[in-house]
TrEMBL record:
Pfam families xref list: LRR_1, LRR_R13L1-DRL21
Domain called R13L1/DRL21-like LRR repeat region: residue spans: 45-87
InterPro entries: Leu-rich_rpt, LRR_dom_sf, LRR_R13L1-DRL21
Gene3D superfamilies given in the database record: Ribonuclease Inhibitor (3.80.10.10)
Protein name according to UniProt: Nbs-lrr resistance protein
Tree of life domain: Eukaryota
Length: 197
């Protein structure tokens, strides 16, 4: 567990931890204090020093206390990630393309979060939208396309205290457990969806 990340204000300071030289790290929690420094990059967006290339073998990741971050970092290409917790992103309004970490612009079959089994979204009071991956066709008047699968193995999704969230992606092929708390709009939408089937 790495605590006090509000004190790491630039890439140079983070590189001193030599995380890229520790390939056997498979479980990691990044925790920011609630009294973030005004000079720190974590105030507006996720720090530039955080990248999925530093920890390719992560199996479990928890990002907590990023109150002022307005975007979630690119995590979709963590090939071994099985459990992800995103907690306390108070300023986050949209989970979008950056989160998935792919650029879909050529013929390819792409998997985003290929081994993820459990995802927790908690305490995001301003989150209103969770976008799907956008598919782009390439060449030949759209006849050539790109195959993108997001969360192909996700089995458990917990969403709690995200009261403004209006929709979630519908690309969960293996979802077995869905828990939604503190969001009447989303709870009602899921109930209606279940009644139709």
């Amino acid at each position: 567990m790495i605590r006090g990340l509000q004190l790491v204000c630039n890439r140079e300071e983070a590189v001193k931890a030599h995380l890229q030289e520790k390939p056997d790290i498979f479980k990691l929690a990044y925790l920011w204090s609630h009294d973030e420094s005004e000079d720190c990059e974590v105030n507006d967006e996720f720090p530039s020093w955080f990248s999925e290339e530093l920890l390719p073998n992560l199996v479990e990741l928890k990002l907590s206390g990023c109150r002022k971050c307005k975007e979630i970092p690119s995590l979709g290409q963590l090939k071994l990630l099985r459990h992800l917790e995103l907690i306390g992103f108070h300023e986050l309004k949209c989970i979008g393309p950056t989160f998935y970490g792919v650029e879909v612009n050529k013929n390819a079959n792409i998997q985003v979060f290929p081994l993820l089994k459990e995802l927790v979204l908690w305490n995001m009071p301003r989150l209103t939208e969770w976008k799907e991956v956008q598919l782009l066709s390439t060449g030949n008047d759209g006849r050539d396309g790109v195959g993108v699968r997001i969360f192909p193995g996700l089995e458990k999704l917990w969403i709690s205290n995200c009261p403004l969230l209006k929709s979630i992606p519908n690309q969960f092929e293996m979802l077995r457990e869905l828990s939604i708390n503190g969001n009447q709009i989303l709870e009602f939408g899921i109930e209606v969806l279940l009644l139709k089937h």
